[in-house]
Amino acid sequence: MIDRNLHRDPVPLDNARHRALRLALPVADWSPAAGLNAVFVAACEFGDVCGEFPIVFVRVDDGPDGKEQVAPLAVLGLVREQNLCLAGGAWQARYMPAVLRNYPFCIGRLDAQRLAVCVDMAWAGVRPGGCGDGVALFEGDGQPAPLLKEMQQRLQVLEGEIERTRHIGARLLELGLLGEMQFSATLADGSIHRVDGFLTVDDKKMQDLPDAVVGELHRSGILGLIHQHWVSLGHMRGLVERHLERSRGLPASLTVAGTTAGPAAPSAPAVPTTSH
After folding, report:
1. What angle do CA 249, 253, 255 make, to 5 degrees?
2. pLDDT at residue 272, as a whole number
3. How far apart are CA 259 and CA 256, in angstroms?
């Protein structure tokens, strides 16, 4: 998955063109993610993500079959290009979503059938032409070096989880369980900060489901994911507090409008642009 707000110049790796390429890993300065206010998370990550970030759903481009699609995001900031999990280039949260952990690598789609491992050539840690320190991606004979072999495996696993997450989103849409939500915070100076354009699972719609469907959701693991999604929404207040701390303001009140979600209220700012 390519996130255009993170991967500024993703280029498919080629064993001739990039044979001497080296990368100054591990990533120490996470400034490339400074403008990332939300990031895709796969369903397998919900257990870790729900303990630290709000998880919301957003509409994304229609699938190959023309059907509507949604994607789950971990909310990192409340306004555009704001990442409240970064301070001076250092990642401050305990958990780092997989899309970020794999940086500067990602998977891109060459055509309908072929995928390729890509590297963000805009990253400051790219060492072209074998210049400077860093870890090699290819051996002298053009075969993948250990780092690239490892990343191929990790990205392949993540791609499988992304596909599974797509199917889960499709089931939520099919059952009509997602609803619009708006979050607003009234600040001490009277100004109102409003965020909308995201979806949450509606508690009332869940209660109205037939028992057989609830049983199916439980057996498939989707019911557990929904509960983790609801639990995660309680972290929105923490994001608001961090946002206000940085802007040196205090909230007067927090309100939510829209569907009835589990515990508290989420907020999802600008949606990252993703592609394959």
Report:
1. 125
2. 38
3. 9
d(CA 10, CA 16): 17
Residue 26: is the preceding peptide bond cis (ω within 30°)? yes
One-character DSSP codes across 137-165: SB-TTSPBPHHHHHHHHHHHHHHHHHHHH
Length of the chain: 276
pLDDT lower than 50: segments of the chain: 260, 263-276
- Residue (of 159, 167, 144) closest to 225 by Cα position: 167
> What pLDDT score does 112 carry?
76
pTM (two decimals) = 0.88
- Predicted local distance difference test score (pLDDT) of residue 188: 64
Q: Are 60 and 69 in contact (CB under 8 A)?
A: yes
What letter would DSSP give residue 190? S
Please state the separation of Cα 26 from the chain's center in Å: 20
